[in-house]
Amino acid sequence: MSVLLTLLLLLQSAWGHPQQKPENANSLSSLWQVAWSNLGKSQSNGGTVTTPATTPVNGEPSGGETDKPPKDPQPDAPKVKGVYVTAYSAGGERMATLLDLLDKTALNAMVIDIKDDLGYITYKTDNPELQKLGTPMRFIKDIGALMDTLKKHEVYPIARIVVFKDSVLAKKHPELSFVTANGSVWQNGKKDSFVNPYRKEVWDYNIAVAKEAAKLGFKEIQFDYVRFPEGFEKKADSLKFTKSDESRTDVVSGFVEYAKEQLEPLGVRVSVDIFGYAASVPAADGIGQDFGKISSHVDVISPMIYPSHYSTGWFKQTDPDKAPYATIKGAMVDTHKKLDPLADAKPVIRPWIQDFTASWLGSGHYIKYGATEVQAQIKALHESGVDEYLLWNATNRYTSGVQY
């Protein structure tokens, strides 16, 4: 893969998670800087220490490969074929439609927002530990009733927790975020704020959310946005935040390792969402994501391999979005190459695939996604030895007529 093509993909990945339009079509110059920086291998952390650094995980650098095969905390789990479900859908009328879809097809799992993209806990909780830093909202009106319904319909429940993108917590506690020279909390182009992965308080808060989700009956915890903001290495010197001597990749993989240790006694699986391109390029040090390091500490890894998020030339395709089979096949080749060195410690590979139409790519560069396109992605996964997958559609409107 050429450096040029790698840069193009990183540009597109900088649009956000996972189904997003570019922030500003005129910001090409700054996005090139993001891409180039993410491709590089610099370990420079940047930033200004404003308080004594918090050293996560007993002061020891983390990451790397495990010494022994992990024990699956859910050995009887099915081969997961799931859909993404917002808290609004889970607590609203759309849930009946989604349950009907799972009842009538081979789909068997739901990934439900328990801490969403803004940072809200999506149900009311009396847990004082969560109320201290968290902001519960009653998007899911009765979490207990929801869990009973999922059990009745034999749905494998996965709790999605958005970790370091947390505008609510950043506004509530600026000292846990990144502060600009004028004293305001930093925001990206979409007005989102992140909290600081160097702060162990942030680790423990998110793990507390996960622990409660496990006690509610979720079988798996899926952590998303386990990273620094895009292009962080270009912003760090102008921001005030707590940091230590650890690299960003070690801090991020350290959180994952710590979370796995904390949740293991509860018998839940731990999974992490990660940019699909991370399997195809060197470690993205700017945002702190190293595919191998993160994967060595989880039960399940979920690369977001949407064809729409790959740029011209990837996997020999002029328009990857128009070639769902070839794009997924190529992404899986790279994923296996990246994870095979983990040997018996290799996690379950369960990619996010595309069930939406990427019209923002422009005329001639995208196709309307329906049953044929979803089926093509699943076929590519099966032929690559991957039997699990998750369907993403931000509106939770999934294609009918697919043979799962």
Automatic annotation (TrEMBL):
Region span, Disordered: 42-80
Comp. bias (Basic and acidic residues): 65-74
Record has Hydrolase as a keyword: yes
Span of domain DUF4015: 82-398
Biased composition, class Low complexity, residue ranges: 45-58
UniProt keyword list: Hydrolase, Signal
Name listed for the protein in its UniProt record: Glycoside hydrolase
